[in-house]
Amino acid sequence: MSVRFENDILETTITNLVIANRILAREDVIDDFGHVSVRNPLNPDRYFLSRSRSPEVVTRGDIMEFTLDGELIGNDHRRPYAERHIHGAIYKDRPDVNAVTHHHARSILPFTMNAISLRPIFHMSAVIGSKIETWDSQDEFGDTNMLVDSMEMGHSLSKVLGESRVALLRGHGCVCAADNLKAVCMVSIALKDNAKLIHDTLQIGKLSYLTDGEIEKTSAMLLSPMPLARAWDYWVARAGYSGI
């Protein structure tokens, strides 16, 4: 592989990471304190993540590179996200994952604090998967500032995530993990939408969840290249990047 081709791959990856930040902000998934990362496609032992900045204003110049242990590559003195260890621990524990989000979408927060399942009730939300567990930092770490700010905490959370695409954090938010940036955006947006739909449904009657088979087959379809490309184009346009 030529140096020029490798540079093109990295440039495209960083561009898409910036756009993913803007998309998730535009879709009211990631607020001023959430974040999204992507594994380095040329070096799986590293990942890209913005410096500590609100996703809606992230630019190419904000992107930093880290080892899976959260160590910064290079001499950038700007402050990184304290919770970067969420990303590194998941990448370390899950070789199949290449993109991660951590967010506090308000519609999902009530489900971090009660026993109502966030299992999909809508076919477009099948991508979140059938198993969604909740990680409680109290179990291992007691009273903290509730940030996942160490590799020990990151691996604890990653263990609860297991092989799933989503895990909730009690009283905090959630993490979403997927094969690529387009897929993790779809999972993150679908999780937010599914939470609101469950809330709305409970106002008028009982819930009816999708079956395991429906979730498996529908998510496989939605996460295939054509639906992902179509959804990505839509989100890109809504974020103000139409035509790039």
Tell me about this structure.
The chain has 244 residues and is of the alpha+beta class. It has a single domain, classed as L-fuculose-1-phosphate Aldolase (3-Layer(aba) Sandwich), CATH 3.40.225.10. The chain has 7 helices and 7 strands; from the N terminus they run H-E-E-E-H-E-E-H-H-E-E-H-H-H. The protein has a 7-stranded mixed β-sheet with strand order 3-2-1-4-7-6-5, sandwiched between helices. Strand 6 and strand 7 form a beta hairpin. Helix 1 runs parallel beside helix 5 and helix 2 crosses helix 4.
Looking at the structure, the CATH topology is L-fuculose-1-phosphate Aldolase
Radius of gyration: 17 Å
Helix and strand element order:
HEEEHEEHHEEHHH
- What CATH first level would be assigned? Alpha Beta
Strand content: 5-15%
Helix content: 25-40%
Provide the spatial order of strands within the biggest beta sheet.
3-2-1-4-7-6-5
- In CATH, the homologous superfamily goes by the name Class II aldolase/adducin N-terminal domain
- Global mean pLDDT: 96
Given the C-alpha coordinates, what overall shape results?
Answer: globular
Protein name: Class II aldolase/adducin family protein
Organism: Vreelandella nanhaiensis
GO molecular function: aldehyde-lyase activity; metal ion binding
Keywords: Lyase, Metal-binding
